[in-house]
Structure formats: structure tokens, C-alpha cells
Design a protein that fits this description.
Chain A is built from 18 helices and 24 strands. Chain A has four domains: about 170 residues, 3-Layer(aba) Sandwich (Rossmann fold), CATH 3.40.50.300; about 70 residues, no CATH class; about 180 residues, P-loop containing nucleotide triphosphate hydrolases (Rossmann fold, 3-Layer(aba) Sandwich), CATH 3.40.50.300; about 70 residues, no CATH class. With about 525 residues, chain A is an alpha/beta fold. The relative contact order of chain A is 0.10. Chain B has one domain. Chain B is built from 14 helices and two strands. A two-stranded antiparallel ribbon of chain B has the order 1-2. Chain B is globular. Chain C is mainly alpha-helical and about 350 residues long. The longest helix of chain C is centred in the N-terminal third of the chain and has 29 residues. Chain C has two domains: about 70 residues, no CATH class; about 260 residues, ABC transporter involved in vitamin B12 uptake, BtuC (Orthogonal Bundle). Classes of the chains: A alpha/beta (about 525), B mainly alpha (about 300), C mainly alpha (about 350). Chains A and C meet through helix 11 and strand 20 of A and helix 9, helix 10 and helix 16 of C.
């Protein structure tokens, strides 16, 4: 390893710091994550990498960070090919990464987290004075103030992110990768982060900023590479391109949302929440003063940055949590203290966001997953015994109906792809013809055809008269399906908007970021 | 009541507490290291048993108690390495591996004893060494306190010394820091270039070394023979102690003292005519009660936070 | 033919191959120093099959461990690692003896009554750690581990002060009355009617887990606790139910062992049958239907060990080594989830699917 500072400052035609040269990655299960990706990043710039979920951003960064090797192609650092996926690759090459889910150990102190893996020593012991001095020096140099002795897990999220950045910078770092760093931050914190990142660039650090939020990309980065379905869909200097062109690169099609026919909702609302608050250890679950109504046949979409209180909202209407204040009624009945069992008995159905832990049991068969929770259903049960024949027949029907692709209904659930698992869960949850459907990220991470299918079934349920609560991070999906859109920020509802033609993601943005609030 | 008072004030009672404590403390510290590294050592009972037999055999063959101790420690370390291999290389379940190790040790030591002595029950035919007791000349001569602090087995002093050493290792060395990191979040630890498997291997070897030592104390500490299944569940009490000690060396010491006092009381109260068996229950009931109180309090605290 | 069945056969074949390899790997070092190593192996492997009486011995050994294997299966299926079955066996044996000695005779129903008492009392050993876990989150593995010993000493106290026969040489109970004893099934062995109960219990356990609603719910709660709460299943009740049933089965194991085999109750140590039950549950992959063959297999090993001890002079503890090695080998994901194995299974399924 040569002295890298000199490399970067070599005057005559410096090679780009990082270059991807025809990188492809195919996983053992046959998933193609990256296909012939080539692009390079000049030194001392902030470069954004955009793309939808599953576009290959994370895989590419895992390769650069040395967690995985490419199937074909190579990574060049300063023009030199390097073999990634070797032990401590990132540390040796001065690459730091701020992970979306922090890689901090919550029980260790800030200093311990930062020095972990390259501890300064005095004899057999850790040189604590040197370690502390190092943290303080780093913290001062980059303007990231932290308490070196604090226990990391007890710090607020924004402070933890500072620790994560310091940790990433602690080993003569010259390339810093940030994976969706703003997802956990509030707008002022985002501004603070961005100005720190600009400082870092001015200190000579090259920054790779991974995001799917265009406004952030524009305000921070100088250039952008867009990935779509594992390929480079385009690259540009941000100053040269308008937003909708980047959007088009990301989406792969002109952005045009086909909305559902607006419906006239009449009559009494089915679900009424008023003045509801929820206390929780996790600030992302807390709710304050929520008022929400859903009518029969109406789809209410909930928009918001991850962790704005959506999870708390869902837990209240599924019986997983009890409100601290306020009232919740369903069809006129007080449900504030209702258990999940009671919600289900009233006709609640739930497509949960985490399919494999909340939506089913991976180790059980399709049959068993499909009839779970149908206790007492005479079609499936005679006394305590399950009616094998009738069940097989019914499940085969569900699988057929929802075009679940499986070798047989006796297979384990985890032999199915994500989309098929979700279809099976939908088949089970909708089989009861629910009066109230909660769809939480119903199509996240599944293929387009399966997503379209799920969408259709959700709409069908509404047309049969179900009240639908749709929680989704996918604004396209939100605007396609919803009759009404509710925006959450910081545990509160910041806007309630009718889903009309002029409602666009851009219009929702300020509410989602807490910049605007509807009275 | 005076009977009881006499017992409490007697240096012999204090010696009994230390005697009971020694193997439990060493074993619990071993479990602590493995637990903090995320590889809970349920095989401690088996490691102790193996150490007990190997110590007696080697010391009988070589005529040296110290070589016996060394062999016991090596045997324990090897079992720790075997456990790491089974879990991290073969991909066997950690708990099942611990149970299998206990079973193998229980059968293996009986076989070993049989092939070495022709007897399945006791090693009475072998002349084993005994770890020496140490008279602390200066301290020993102090009136009143002297008889309490001096004249105990070398491994007893070793066990007491191990508490600050383990504490220092966990808190202040790079190895300890990495153990704590790996035990909480192995994936995060791996992202900074730490080899999780290597740390866990080392932790289990160290755990086994302590297990072997604890076993050697049982067979060579105050007796000089090995008997079938002589650990009699001490490895399991050590597990309870470690859990009560909340994963810290000093907490483990405190929990060991509590259990050792309970067991000593059980032993001495028999002399007062109380039913032997009921007294023997005490050291097993105490950890259940303490653990339940602690987890219940922890839960109440978390609920209050909500 | 069913694809899943064929793929299952692949796993079974690998399991058998692994068990065979482990058996030989452990036995051969013991056989080699012997004059005729072949006879050592033959004594072990063929001895148990050499006569009806020896097969009876196999079933006799298998009886209590089939019960404890079933008990461990039921308890583990609830997702709790409750080791209380070990003392459940002890408690069941003690309580059944007490019932037989102290209660009036119920004629031909005496053993039945004694076993029921044993089962009910034995279940305490699993209920206590389960309740401490559900109510206060005390770690059930640790509490059950030490509770086993607490129960042992409480039981020995009871034996010493209430059941002890002063005329007997050592610490043991009065003679168990003849009408409380189980019928022997095969002359020359101690195989008793308890074996039939064990078989029926395992089959019933399998039917419960796989063919009833409550069994399905138990498996959902154990394997998908978060899903269970999303479904609104009463998880705590279901988990506690499994501890009660598992503990009762463990208690039955002890009761039947004592009433079927022994003239008096004389356990002053934990009998170890609970630990063996855990091994069986693991070998049987927590499936009650497989508990029967797994228990018979361990019984076969045990009789093989007896042959070694009697004919060759090698202690039967060799069996423990073999069992431990088998435990590790059959749970090693490195073998059963080896890419080559998974590929093979996938290919079989796809070939079948293509037809």
C-alpha cells in the first residue's frame, strides 16, 4: 500500500478515485443483481447513486466496500485493479461506509465503536488516552461533535449517525459511502448532515451518496449515476439535467400515474380515530393527536418518510398496541383496548410489511400458512381435527386464484419467491372478505406482475366495501390506489389530501419532510 | 442460635465458603467469556469433568500435580476448540453442541477411567497429586484475620485473582473489546475486519481452559481422586451464576459468593440436625429466585419507560 | 410419486449414511486393539438383533426415552427450551410410587391411577420454568436447569422421610405393591405394557401436532411467534398448554419406568432420561412420529453397548460417545445444507415437476 494522499494529489491527469469496470453480479440463487456496470467517480466530489429499491445500488456498494466480490469485471482504485471481498478490504484501502442500519455496537462506548478493529495499544491494553485523543481529533477536524465516553445505544439517532460517520472516517478514509443516510433524520438534521458532508469533500474526501430522494441528491451532489434493474440507466452532471429526466432514468418510463376512478364515499365512517396518541420506547413509533376516518369502500393511503409513525398507527388498528390517549372506534364499537383477536373477529385483515416473520411461518407448508388463524371454521375443521381433504382443495383453489407459483401446496413457505409469498398471504387475508384491510408496504421488493396483481386485489376488496388503510413508501403505488392521502411526519398527520390529478409526489414532499403543515 | 454464630465466626466456615466457591467461580468466568462472545458454553459441565479426570491421570503418571493441572487445562481448551469447530465449521446448533459435549464427556471420562484403572467408578488405585495450599507468611500471622486469609489452595487464590484479570481483559484489551463487539452484533463486527469465527474460537478455548482448571480443582484441590460424574451439576450452577452475574466478572464473583454461602450454610446446618436434603436444595433455589426477581424488575423498568 | 417424499428420501439416506459413518468412526478405535476387531463390531451391531429376547431389551430401553423424547418434542415445539423434563421423570416416578404405596388399591386400575398421579405431579417441573418465563421473562433454560436439582433434593428428602423402608439396606422406598406394577410382555426381559402406552402416546402426539387445529397453532406459536401474535392467537395459553402436556408426559415416563421395572423406588440421582429425551427429539427432528424409531435406535445402541460390556469387556459408555457424535453430525448444517445436497434435492424436485 503506497501513500494514498500523494496519489490523490498527483497533478498530471489523476485517475478517478473509484472506477467500476464492467461489473456483473449474479447470486447463487440465480438473481442477477448487476449487469455490466461501468462508471467512475472523480476525486473530491460528491457523487450520487440513484435508483429504485432492487436496482442494484446496495450490491454495488457491498462490492466496493469489500463485503462481496463481483461475478465478472473489476473495481479500480486510483486506476489500479484491486480484488475486493478480501478480509478488511475497506479498512486497508481507506474506504468507509455509513450503513443505513448502523454498524455500531449499541453496548459499546463511542470511542470503543470508533477504534474497534484497529485499537491503539499500550502493551497488552488498549491505549485509552490515545483512543480518546484520536476520537476528539477526528471529531474536531470534521466538525462532528460527539461525547467520546457516551454509550452509543443511548444516543439519539442523529448523534449515532455522527458516530457512524466518524467511525467510517477513522482509518485514513478517502472514499466515504453513505447508504440512504437521511432516512432516519429530521429536516434540520438533514441540513446539518449535508453541510458536514460538504466540509468533508473540502477536506479531500470523495463521497458516494446513495439515495432515492431527488431533492436531496440535487441539493448535495455534483453528479449522479442512475441504476435501473442492475444496469447503468444514465449518468449526468446535475447542473445539466432537469428533475424529470432523472426521474425518467430512475423509473425507466415517463412518470405518469394512472389513478383509480375517484369514488364517491358516502355514509358513516367505519374506522374513527380521534385525538389518538401512542407512547413508545422507539421514537419512530410514537404518535401524537391522530385524527383519521376511513369509510367503507374507501382506500386511505398513508405517505411519509420511514419511521414517521406509520408502524405505530398500524399497531393501534391491529390490536398490537393500546393508545395512550384518544379514542378508536370501529363500526361504532369502542376498540381502544381491543386485542388482535377482537380486531380480527370484527373483520380486520392485515398484509404486514415483514412477510416472513409477521405474515407467515417460513418452516411451515403453504397449506398450513394458508389456513393459519381460521380457527373454528367448519369447512376446515371437524371437532379438534383438521379436514385434510377439504383444506387441500380450498388451498389449491386459493393458490390457483392468486396464481401463486409453487411446486406443490405441500412445500415449505420459504421455498417461494417474495412475490408468491405475498400473494399467498393476500389470499389468506382476503379469503375472509374483510371489512377492514390494512396493507402495509404490500408490494415492497416484489416483481411488477405480482405487484399489479396485489393492487387489483386490494382495489377489489375496497369495491366489495372494505375500508382499506394502505401504508406505503412507494408514492407511485400510493397515488395509483388511494382515494385519499394522509401524510405523516414525526408521529403526526401533516396533511390530508384528496387524490386528484394535481396531487403529485412533488406536492407531497414538503408534507413528508415536515416543511409544511396543513391546519 | 449460638451454634450458628460459632459456625459463622469460625475460620473453617470461611474456608468452606472458599472451597465451594473456587470451582464455581472459575467455571462461571469461563462461561462469561464464551457468553460475551455470543457462544454460550453449555458444555462447561463436560469440560470440568474432563479436566478433573485428565488432571488426576496425568498427575498420577508424571508424579506432578502441576503437570496434571496443565494437562487438564489443555484438555479443556481442546474441548473449547472442538465446540467452536462444531458450531462455526460444521454448522451445528450451539446448545445441541453443548449438550453433546456433556454427554460425550460423561461417557468418555468413564471409559477413560476404566481403561486407565480398570475401574468405572473411582480412581482410588491411582496416586494423584494435590494442588498445594499456600501459607501467606505475613498475612497469616496477623491475629484474627490471619487464619481467614492464609492457607488456602493455590487455585482458590488463582480464582480470586482471575476476577480482576478477566474484568481487565474484557474492559481494557483489544481482545476483550472484540469479544464484546462480536457477542452483540457479529455482522457489524465483521464490517471492520474482525474475524468473528476466530474471536469465538479463542473465547471458547479460553472458556475451556478455565473449565479444565475448575475440574482439576475438583479432583486435585482438596481430594486426590476422580469419581464418575463428580462434577454433579456444578457446571450448570456455574451457568446460573454467570447469568445472575449479568455478564460481568465482578457480578459473577458476587453471585458466586451468594451461592457458596448458601451451599456452606447447607453443609453446616446439617450439623445442626436439619434435614440434609432440604439444605442441599438451597443453592439451586437461590438462583431461580434471584433470576426471576431481576428479570421481573428489568421488565417493570422497561414498562415504566414506555 | 410425491416430490417432497423423494426429496425427503435423499435426506433420510444422508442421515443414515452419516449415522453409519459416525458409528464406525467411534467403534473402530475401540475394536482395533482387540484380537478380532470384526467380532467387536459384530457384537455391537448384530447382538441386539440376535434373538427375540434381545429385541425385547431394545424395546425395553426405548420405552422411557420414547416418552421423554415426545415430552421434549412437545415442549420445544412451543419455542421454549425448557429442560424441566429431566426432573419431571424423577418426580413422576416418585409420585407414582407414593400413590401406589399410600393410596387404596383400585384393583386393576391401580397402575392407571398411579401413572396419572405421576403425570400430574411430574408436570410441575415444566410448569414452573414456563410460568416464570411467561410471567417474568426469567430465562427458562437456566431456571429449569437448576430447578432440576432443586426438585431432585426435595424428592430425595421426601423419599428419606416418608417412603423409606428402614429394613432395606440403602435409601429406597417400601416395596411397590404387586397390583400397582405393569404387566410384563416378554419373558426374560423387563419389557412391559408401558411400551404400548409409549407407542400410542407418540402416535397420538403426532396426530395432535399435525392433524388438529390446536397442534397447528402450537407449531405456529413455536416457529413463528410474531406471526402468531399478528394472527391474534392466544400465545401464552398455547405455550403453557405445551409445558403442561410435556411435563405430564415426562411424569408418565418416570411413573412407567418405576412401576414397570423396579421393585422399589431408589433414584437418588437424576435418572438422565430427560437429557436422552432431548437427544431423541433432535434426532426425530421434533416430529412425534419419528420419536418411535429414534427411541428404538437409541435402545438398539444401548443393547449393543451391553453386548460390548458383557462379551468384550468394553464399558457400555461407548454408546454415549456414539450418541454425542451422532447428535452433532445429524444437526450439522454443513452436511445437510451443503450446496451439493441442496442442488441434488432441487434437481429431483424439478425433474419430477417437469413430468
Amino acid at each position: 500500500m503506497t501513500d494514498r494522499r500523494d496519489d490523490g494529489e498527483r497533478a498530471a491527469g489523476p485517475a478517478p478515485v473509484v472506477a467500476f469496470d464492467h461489473i456483473s453480479k449474479t447470486y447463487a440463487n440465480g438473481t442477477v443483481a448487476l449487469r455490466d456496470v461501468s462508471f467512475s467517480i472523480p476525486a473530491r466530489t460528491i457523487h450520487a447513486i440513484c435508483g429504485e429499491n432492487g436496482a442494484g445500488k446496495s450490491t454495488l456498494m457491498k462490492i466496493l466496500f469489500g463485503l462481496e466480490g463481483p461475478t465478472a469485471g473489476q473495481v479500480l482504485l486510483d486506476g489500479q485493479p484491486v480484488s475486493t471481498a478480501t478480509r478488511d478490504f475497506a479498512g486497508r484501502h481507506g474506504i468507509g461506509m455509513v450503513h443505513q442500519h448502523f454498524s455500531l455496537i449499541p453496548t459499546l462506548s463511542v470511542t470503543e465503536n470508533i477504534i474497534l478493529g484497529h485499537e491503539p495499544k499500550k502493551g497488552v491494553l488498549i491505549d485509552r488516552a490515545a483512543a480518546r485523543a484520536k476520537v476528539e481529533a477526528l471529531s474536531q477536524r470534521y466538525g462532528l461533535a460527539v461525547d467520546p465516553d457516551a454509550i452509543t445505544g443511548r444516543l439519539p439517532v442523529a448523534a449515532q449517525q455522527k458516530v457512524e460517520i466518524l467511525k467510517a472516517l477513522s482509518r485514513d478514509t478517502r472514499v466515504l459511502i453513505l447508504d440512504e443516510p437521511t432516512a432516519v433524520l429530521s429536516p434540520p438534521e438533514i441540513n446539518e448532515l449535508f453541510s458536514r458532508l460538504r466540509d468533508l469533500r473540502d477536506h479531500g474526501i470523495t463521497i458516494l451518496f446513495i439515495s432515492h430522494k431527488l431533492n436531496e441528491v440535487r441539493s448535495l451532489a455534483e453528479s449522479v449515476t442512475v441504476l435501473r434493474a442492475g444496469q447503468v440507466a444514465g449518468a449526468a452532471r446535475l447542473a445539466d439535467v432537469p428533475d424529470n429526466m432523472i426521474m425518467q432514468m430512475v423509473m425507466g418510463r415517463p412518470v405518469e400515474i394512472t389513478r383509480r376512478e375517484p369514488r364517491q364515499v358516502t355514509g358513516e365512517p367505519l374506522l374513527v380515530m380521534s385525538g389518538v396518541s401512542l407512547a413508545s420506547r422507539d421514537p419512530a413509533d410514537r404518535l401524537r393527536d391522530i385524527d383519521l376516518v376511513i369509510h367503507p369502500g374507501e382506500i386511505v393511503g398513508v405517505a411519509g418518510v420511514d419511521g414517521s409513525g406509520q408502524r405505530g398507527l398500524v399497531s393501534l388498528v391491529t390490536g398490537a398496541a393500546r393508545p395512550g390517549a384518544g379514542s378508536i372506534s370501529f363500526d361504532g364499537e369502542d376498540m381502544a383496548a381491543a386485542s388482535t383477536e377482537r380486531w380480527r373477529a370484527r373483520g380486520m385483515a392485515h398484509l404486514p410489511s415483514d412477510r416472513f416473520t409477521q405474515g407467515g411461518v417460513p418452516a411451515l407448508t403453504l397449506i398450513e400458512n394458508a389456513i393459519a388463524g381460521t380457527d373454528g371454521d367448519r369447512r376446515f375443521q371437524r371437532g379438534p381435527f383438521l379436514r385434510g381433504g377439504a383444506i387441500s382443495e380450498a388451498v389449491a383453489g386459493m393458490v390457483e386464484d392468486y396464481s401463486v407459483r409453487a411446486l406443490s401446496i405441500g412445500e415449505r413457505l420459504d421455498s417461494l419467491s417474495g412475490g408468491n409469498v405475498q400473494k399467498l398471504i393476500a389470499a389468506r387475508e382476503l379469503a375472509t372478505e374483510p371489512r377492514f384491510l390494512i396493507a402495509d408496504q404490500p408490494t415492497r421488493g416484489i416483481d411488477v406482475a405480482a405487484a399489479a396483481f396485489i393492487h387489483k386485489r386490494i382495489v377489489d376488496a375496497a369495491e366489495r366495501g372494505a375500508a382499506v388503510l394502505l401504508v406505503t413508501a412507494d408514492l407511485d403505488e400510493l397515488l395509483r390506489l388511494s382515494d385519499r392521502v394522509v401524510v405523516m411526519f414525526g408521529g403526526q398527520i401533516t396533511a390530508v389530501l384528496a387524490n386528484e390529478a394535481h396531487l403529485t409526489p412533488e406536492r407531497l414532499g414538503p408534507f413528508m419532510l415536515g416543511l409544511e403543515d396543513m391546519p | 442460635m449460638t451454634g450458628l454464630l460459632n459456625i459463622v465466626a469460625d475460620p473453617a466456615t470461611f474456608a468452606t465458603v472458599l472451597r465451594v466457591m473456587t470451582p464455581l467461580l472459575i467455571a462461571a468466568l469461563g462461561i462469561l467469556i464464551s457468553d460475551r462472545a455470543g457462544v454460550f458454553n453449555l458444555g462447561m459441565e463436560g469440560m470440568m469433568l474432563t479436566g478433573a479426570l485428565v488432571g488426576v491421570l496425568v498427575s498420577a503418571w508424571t508424579g506432578s500435580a502441576w503437570l496434571g493441572l496443565l494437562a487438564a487445562v489443555v484438555a479443556g481448551g481442546l474441548m473449547g476448540a472442538l465446540m467452536a469447530f462444531a458450531v462455526n465449521t460444521l454448522g451445528a446448533n450451539l446448545i445441541i453442541t453443548g449438550i453433546a459435549l456433556n454427554l460425550a464427556a460423561s461417557s468418555g471420562t468413564t471409559l477413560g477411567l476404566f481403561f486407565a484403572t480398570g475401574d468405572k467408578g473411582m480412581s482410588g488405585a491411582l496416586k494423584s497429586g494435590v494442588m498445594p495450599s499456600i501459607d501467606l507468611a505475613v498475612l497469616g500471622s496477623i491475629p484474627v484475620i490471619g487464619p481467614f486469609v492464609s492457607g488456602h489452595n493455590v487455585l482458590t487464590y488463582g480464582a480470586l485473582l482471575a476476577v480482576p484479570l478477566v474484568s481487565l481483559m474484557m474492559a481494557r484489551t483489544a481482545f476483550g473489546l472484540r469479544i464484546r463487539a462480536v457477542g452483540v452484533d457479529p455482522k457489524a463486527a465483521a464490517t471492520v475486519g474482525i474475524s468473528v469465527k476466530l474471536i469465538q474460537l479463542k473465547a471458547l478455548i479460553l472458556s475451556g481452559v478455565l473449565g479444565g482448571m475448575a475440574g482439576a480443582y475438583l479432583s486435585m484441590g482438596y481430594v486426590s481422586w476422580f469419581a464418575q460424574d463428580m462434577t454433579a451439576g456444578r457446571g450448570f450452577i456455574a451457568i446460573a451464576i454467570e447469568v445472575m452475574g449479568m455478564g460481568t466478572a465482578w457480578g459473577t464473583l458476587a453471585a458466586t459468593v451468594v451461592i457458596a454461602i448458601a451451599e456452606t450454610l447447607a453443609i453446616t446446618m446439617q450439623t445442626l440436625g436439619l434435614p440434609n436434603e432440604l439444605m442441599q436444595m438451597i443453592p439451586y433455589v437461590v438462583p431461580i429466585v434471584i433470576l426471576t426477581i431481576w428479570t421481573a424488575r428489568g421488565r417493570a423498568k422497561r414498562a415504566a419507560l414506555k | 410419486m410425491n416430490r417432497a417424499f423423494l426429496a425427503g428420501l435423499v435426506r433420510l439416506a444422508i442421515t443414515l449414511a452419516v449415522i453409519g459413518a459416525v458409528l464406525l468412526a467411534v467403534l473402530i478405535p475401540f475394536a482395533l486393539p482387540h484380537e478380532h476387531p470384526g467380532t467387536v463390531i459384530a457384537a455391537f451391531l448384530l447382538g441386539p438383533l440376535s434373538s427375540l429376547r434381545h429385541l425385547g431389551n431394545v424395546a425395553e430401553y426405548a420405552t422411557p426415552i420414547a416418552f421423554t423424547g415426545l415430552a421434549a418434542t412437545v415442549v420445544f415445539r412451543s419455542g421454549l427450551f425448557n429442560l424441566g423434563i429431566e426432573s419431571g421423570v424423577f418426580l413422576g416416578g416418585l409420585a407414582a410410587t407414593t400413590a401406589a404405596l399410600l393410596l387404596l388399591s383400585f384393583g386393576p386400575f391401580t397402575p392407571f391411577v398411579a401413572i396419572v398421579v405421576g403425570a400430574v405431579v411430574g408436570s410441575i417441573s415444566c410448569i414452573v420454568p414456563g410460568e416464570l418465563r411467561l410471567r417474568w421473562e426469567a430465562p427458562e433454560m437456566v431456571t429449569s436447569l437448576v430447578l432440576n436439582f432443586a426438585i431432585l433434593y426435595a424428592g430425595v428428602f421426601f423419599l428419606n422421610y416418608y417412603l423409606r423402608d428402614p429394613a432395606a439396606g440403602s435409601l429406597m422406598s417400601y416395596r411397590i405393591p404387586a397390583d400397582a406394577k405393569l404387566d410384563r410382555l416378554l419373558a426374560g426381559t423387563r419389557l412391559n405394557s408401558g411400551a404400548i402406552v409409549a407407542l400410542v402416546a407418540c402416535l397420538a402426539g403426532g396426530v395432535w401436532l399435525y392433524f388438529t387445529r390446536s397442534g397447528l397453532n402450537l407449531r405456529i406459536v413455536g416457529q413463528g411467534p410474531v406471526f402468531a401474535s399478528h394472527l391474534g392467537l392466544p400465545s401464552r395459553r398455547i405455550i403453557m398448554q405445551a409445558q403442561i402436556v410435556g411435563g405430564m408426559i415426562a411424569g408418565m415416563a418416570g411413573a412407567i419406568q418405576v412401576l414397570g421395572l423396579y421393585p422399589r423406588f431408589s433414584w437418588t440421582q437424576l435418572p438422565g432420561l430427560g437429557w436422552t429425551g432431548i437427544i431423541i427429539a433432535i434426532l426425530a427432528r421434533e416430529n412425534p412420529f419419528y420419536v418411535v424409531p429414534a427411541a428404538l435406535f437409541l435402545g438398539y445402541l444401548q443393547v449393543g453397548g451391553d453386548f460390548l460390556a458383557r462379551d468384550i469387556g468394553i464399558p457400555s459408555e461407548v454408546v454415549g460417545l456414539i450418541t454425542a457424535a451422532i447428535m452433532l453430525a445429524v444437526t450439522a448444517t454443513a452436511i445437510f445444507q451443503h450446496p451439493a445436497v441442496l442442488r441434488l434435492i432441487r434437481r429431483i424436485r424439478q425433474v419430477e415437476a417437469a413430468r
